[in-house]
Amino acid sequence: MTVTVEFWYLVGLLLGFLGVVFTFGKLLLAQFEQRLDQRFRAIDEANKATSTRWDTRFAELMEQNRREADGWQRIEKDFLRFQAELPVQYVRREDYVRNQTVIEAKLDSLALKIENVQLKGQ
Q1: Overall average pLDDT of the 74-100 stretch
Q2: What pLDDT is attached to residue 40?
Q3: What is the DSSP secondary-structure string of the chain?
Q4: pLDDT beyond 80 at 90
Q5: Which residue in 87, 105, 84 sits closest to 95, CA to CA?
């Protein structure tokens, strides 16, 4: 049994097969491209969401830093006010000892005068 195929029929079959392979390849590449586009869109949306979240967090941190800075400024003002009022409210030990010595010397001289008066009066 002999099968005879004409050359042009074989060429037509080969061209048809190559056309089908080319078409399937083109469809497959189109699906790849579509899937890549979907992934890139998803990545872009995730990046936008992440960027928004980080911007919000950064704004919160900046607000917190501003509040902390205000707190430190308030503490610094309170400390400076304390330093200004400290000499008025605080008596140093040397000052106390000096004042106490003056008072005791005055009391001693007063006691001496009273003793002199008592001795003269007898």
Answers
A1: 85
A2: 96
A3: ------HHHHHHHHHHHHHHHHHHHHHHHHHHHHHHHHHHHHHHHHHHHHHHHHHHHHHHHHHHHHHHHHHHHHHHHHHHHHHHHHHHH---HHHHHHHHHHHHHHHHHHHHHHHHHHHHH-
A4: no
A5: 87
**What is the rounded distance in angstroms from the CA atom of residue 21 to the CA atom of residue 43?**
32
Instruction: Answer positive or negative: Cα dihedral of 87, 91, 94, 100.
Output: positive
Give the Cα separation of 87 and 79 in Å (integer): 13
Distance CA 36, CA 28 (A): 12
- Separation of alpha carbons 22 and 26, rounded Å: 6
